[in-house]
TrEMBL record:
Region of interest (Disordered), residue spans: 111-140
Name by which UniProt lists this protein: Bacteriocin-protection, YdeI or OmpD-Associated
Organism annotation: Kibdelosporangium philippinense
Feature: compositional bias, Basic and acidic residues: 131-140
Native organism taxonomy: Bacteria, Bacillati, Actinomycetota, Actinomycetes, Pseudonocardiales
Top-level taxonomic group: Bacteria
Length: 196
């Protein structure tokens, strides 16, 4: 097992299964929840961390979300974030989440007759980072279009500035949102008298 850096120390970890739940076999005598949250207390860097994990069809665990909470003595900084080792957290979470296969068998026994557990290979694939970014960009464009349209309807002569203020984004970023909203057909094409 690789040695952990001196500036990274897990004090304890707990695991909570998330719904919809289920288990997948990880060996002849072990299983792991298909979806769970792991909670950590770290002494180095001094913080608490939550990660959401999903176990894919290939039994490869994927981290979907990470939340880090600092303390007054250790606020969250770039330096602190560099020391939160997600791969090490995932390894510890998987160790903690692994249960005897009897737990999976008990879970299977609770399913109503005729109901089969979802085959992870048939599950909806976890969205890629690109898909999540595109989805977020579309959501930002929709919100920008709504704010922009409301500002225009209210007679605001600088609707782009209204979007920047409401969304707390730079004018450059808001221009991208508005351009995307126009491409999506949420706002009319740019006319000679209209500006972003």
């Amino acid at each position: 097992m690789p040695r952990l850096p001196k500036n990274f120390q897990i004090d304890w970890v707990s695991v909570e299964e998330l719904t919809p739940g289920g288990y997948v076999s990880t060996g002849p005598d072990t299983a792991v929840p298909t979806r769970f949250q792991a909670n950590f207390a770290l002494s180095e860097p001094e913080s608490s961390v939550k990660i959401e994990v999903v176990v894919g069809a290939d039994l490869r665990p994927l981290v979907l979300e990470v939340a880090v909470r600092g303390k007054a003595t250790t606020p969250i900084t770039t330096s602190v974030m560099r020391h939160v080792l997600v791969d090490q957290l995932l390894r510890a979470a998987m160790d903690k989440a692994t249960v005897p296969s009897s737990v999976r068998d008990e879970w299977l026994a609770t399913l109503p007759p005729g109901v089969q557990p979802m085959d992870r290979s048939q599950a909806d694939p976890v969205p890629s980072a690109d898909q999540r970014l595109r989805s977020q960009a579309d959501e930002d464009a929709r919100r920008a279009a709504q704010i922009y349209s409301e500002a225009v309807a209210a007679g605001n002569r600088a609707p782009g500035l209204a979007v920047a203020t409401a969304m707390k984004r730079s004018r450059t970023q808001v221009s991208r949102y508005i351009r995307r909203a126009r491409d999506m057909g949420l706002l009319p094409p740019l006319g000679s008298s209209e500006g972003a």
